[in-house]
Amino acid sequence: MNRARAVLEGVRDGSVSVEQALTELRMAPFADLGFAKVDLQREVRQGVAEVVFGEGKTAAQMVGIVRALLEGGGVGGGGQRPVLITRLDAEKAAAVGREVALDYRAEARLGLVGTMPEPDGIGDIVVVSGGTSDGPVAEEAAVTAEALGNVVRRVYDAGVAGLHRLLAHQEELAAASVVVAVAGMEGALASVVGGLVACPVVAVPTSVGYGASFGGVAALLAMLNSCASGVGVVNIDNGFGGGYLASRINHLEAKPR
């Protein structure tokens, strides 16, 4: 019997306390594939199951990890759904898709095995991007948040060079629980959004821009130095990190003291 399932059976028959079960499940063994040690109980510890970072891995390695998660990723041993693969290029996606049923989102460079979950976040996440060139990073954030159980609204190509495009969505922004602001160039979008909304803003700098943007460093520094309060910043081009953090915020509930 799967060890996690055995622990849950123990809780049901009274031989294992709830506290003991949580401790054991959090420290449950990983699946050692030789080339990877797959964390099967990450969802128990962190609330979100392991995500596969595709860049640098072969298609065969990704298939092996995905299968391990599908077969043993659930708390009860029934497997994880969906499995999210980030930074997945089209060629490797085709190879992975020949082995497992893969929903590939080309612009976001994300692959999903299994169906999207029903949204269970507190409210909506709005992903807003500065320009069309920021689209791939914004989509990475948006699809990540959707795969983690959130309703996501997209407001794309609404940068500060044409501020009226952003202001046309003020009502939508004001209703958000979290906003993910994705922008390159000088990265001013995060400060402007931060000055319009009462919710947390997750700023994602992109490497889009001319020479003095230094591959996104200018946008990163501008976002870190935002004069608007309540703006947090993730790394350059890290749409996944922005969407993941926004999801964490959107699933927060008041904890008893």
Element layout with pairings:
Blueprint: H1 3-13, H2 18-26, E1 31-32, E2 37-38, H3 42-46, E3 52-53, H4 59-72, E4 83-86, H5 90-97, E5 103-105, E6 110-113, E7 124-129, H6 135-147, E8 151-155, H7 163-167, H8 170-174, E9 178-183, H9 189-194, E10 201-205, H10 217-224, E11 231-233, H11 239-250
Parallel strand pairs: 3-4, 7-8, 7-9, 9-10, 10-11
Antiparallel strand pairs: 1-2, 4-6, 5-6
Helix pairs in contact: 1-2, 4-5, 6-11
The tally of beta strands, per DSSP, is: 11
- Total of domains: 2
What is the approximate shape? Answer: globular
Largest sheet: 5 strands, parallel
Secondary-structure element series: HHEEHEHEHEEEHEHHEHEHEH
As laid out across the biggest beta sheet, the strand order is 8-7-9-10-11
Describe what is shown at a glance:
This protein has 257 residues and is an alpha/beta fold. The protein contains eleven helices and eleven strands.
Describe this structure in words.
The protein has 257 residues and is α/β, with parallel strands linked by helices. The chain folds into two domains: 30-113, no CATH class; 124-250, Rossmann fold, CATH 3.40.50. The protein contains eleven helices and eleven strands. The strands form three sheets. The chain has a five-stranded parallel beta sheet. A four-stranded mixed beta sheet has the order 3-4-6-5, with helices on both faces. Strands 1-2 form a two-stranded antiparallel sheet.
What key phrases describe this protein's structure?
alpha/beta, globular, 257 residues, 5-stranded parallel β-sheet, 37% helix, 2 domains
